[in-house]
Specification:
The structure is a single chain. By secondary structure, the chain is α/β, with parallel strands linked by helices. It is built from 19 helices and 13 strands.
């Protein structure tokens, strides 16, 4: 298969240096797999926090089928797409790779269409490319919503089911703030708008609620507008800005403009915030690294509210955060068989109960112990979910662009009108350079 032309020879060399200089052990494991049996599979894992569980998954598959599976884990902080491109350029492409939504564009025409696979009929979380078909296998589901401490809301007499409008959200914030001292709270909400290290949170996840909150999963109205040169719906954007202003007002100032993701999550886990602007992935931290603090806070029930910056918005945003995909030049049939097995009972038990993943498959009978698993399942079963269309933004726009507008608003450099203009300016400039 011909190699794709990656920008320039200099870029190619840089990518290879990055991959093979920083990740030598990973490369060697791929070479060993290539020298093995023709039925072997190499799987690229980008979830380093569950490496042992994914390796157990591979071992179980080998025990059942006799097909060797080597797991290659990309360390945290390493550019995943650069790593995969390095493998591709050196003819060491894994049989199964991992891609976030923006990563699929690097592999146009080079991945296998999986739309005819049985597992694709049992989920709505697969990655579908309008040209090339079903390219991505979902191995977990994550959710973006306004996470809350159920115990605190109960003590304040607030029914979370009633918060489906901006006025109800503001009223809840005011009520909790008035009781902050007696409840021992540091702040009503932990919201972080620091752009350099945590820009993915405001620029992708929080901004993603502007694009999708309250919409059907297939509704692409606002992402289509944005991708048409950086256009916005003025009424919707203004309402969204009101919500962000509320977050700025009631957030813990110690995390608002600082690189403080760990402190933000720890503050919520220890019962110091009623709300936090992070998704379901923090559940693993609450029951892992912050387990003692969470236990000391009473292992309180958690939930998720819609980001209801307009009346009637009653959905949270759910999606696979990344997908497994099969390159055409690899051991395609063996890789297909492995992914099908991963959608079935034995593998789902490992992925859900051991790895703590929330299954994207409708017939899965296992429920993760993650604190957010039940609430997400409830939204999914009631059809109250919207999509993650922020993943269809140009690469870097949210994390490296729009996030700086959130920071300026949070730091007081600009007001609401300035925030709106800043988002429009950043987006317009970004698209003009594509």
């Amino acid at each position: 298969m011909q190699k794709r032309r990656f920008i320039s020879l200099i870029t190619v060399l840089a990518l290879m240096l990055l991959t093979f200089g920083c990740n030598k052990a990973t490369t060697e494991s791929v070479e060993e797999t290539d020298a093995g049996t023709t039925g072997s599979i190499t799987l690229l894992n980008i979830k380093g926090e569950v490496t042992s569980q994914i390796e157990a998954l591979a071992k179980q598959y080998t025990q059942e089928t006799g097909v060797p599976v080597t797991v290659v884990t990309v360390p945290a902080g390493v550019d995943v797409q650069a790593t995969i491109k390095g493998y591709y350029l050196s003819d060491q492409m894994p049989d199964i790779i991992a891609c976030e939504a923006s990563g699929f564009g690097s592999w146009d025409g080079l991945l296998v269409d999986l739309s005819d696979q049985n597992w694709a009929t049992r989920t709505d979380a697969e990655y579908i490319d309008p040209t090339y078909g079903t390219l991505g296998f979902p191995y977990t589901t994550e959710a973006i919503g306004l996470a809350y401490n159920g115990d605190i809301l109960a003590k304040c007499g607030i029914d979370p089911a009633s918060i489906t409008s901006p006025s109800a959200l503001q009223s809840a914030f005011e009520t909790i703030d008035a009781k902050k001292d007696e409840l021992g709270l540091t702040a009503v909400i932990g919201y972080c708008a620091e752009p350099n290290d945590v820009g993915w949170s405001s620029g992708n996840h929080v901004f993603g609620t502007y694009l999708d909150s309250g919409l059907d999963r297939s509704d692409t109205k606002y992402i289509d507008m944005l991708n048409d040169g950086g256009k916005f719906d003025d009424e919707r954007l203004s309402a969204f800005a009101d919500m962000i202003e509320l977050f700025n007002q009631y957030s813990d100032p110690a995390v608002l403009t600082e690189s403080a993701y760990d402190a933000q999550v720890a503050g919520f886990a220890s019962g110091k915030y009623a709300f936090v602007t992070q998704g379901s992935w923090i559940g693993a931290t609450m029951t892992g690294a912050e387990a003692d603090a969470y236990a000391a806070a009473g292992n309180f029930d958690v939930g998720m509210l819609p980001y209801c910056f307009m009346d009637g918005q009653d959905t949270i945003l759910t999606s696979a955060p990344s997908w497994w995909a099969i390159p055409k030049e690899g051991n395609v049939e063996a890789a297909k068989a492995f992914l099908q097995w991963c959608s079935e009972d034995t593998a789902q038990k490992i992925l859900v109960e051991d790895a703590g993943f929330i299954s994207p498959f409708t017939d899965c009978k296992y429920v993760a112990t993650d604190p957010f698993a039940k609430v997400i399942s409830s939204y999914v079963s009631s059809g109250k979910t919207s999509n993650w269309h922020w993943q269809s933004m140009p690469e870097g726009l949210g994390q490296k662009g729009l996030s700086f507008g959130f920071y300026k608003f949070a730091s007081g450099e600009i007001d609401k009108a300035g925030f709106i203009n800043e988002l429009k300016s950043i987006a317009s400039d970004w698209y003009s350079k594509l």
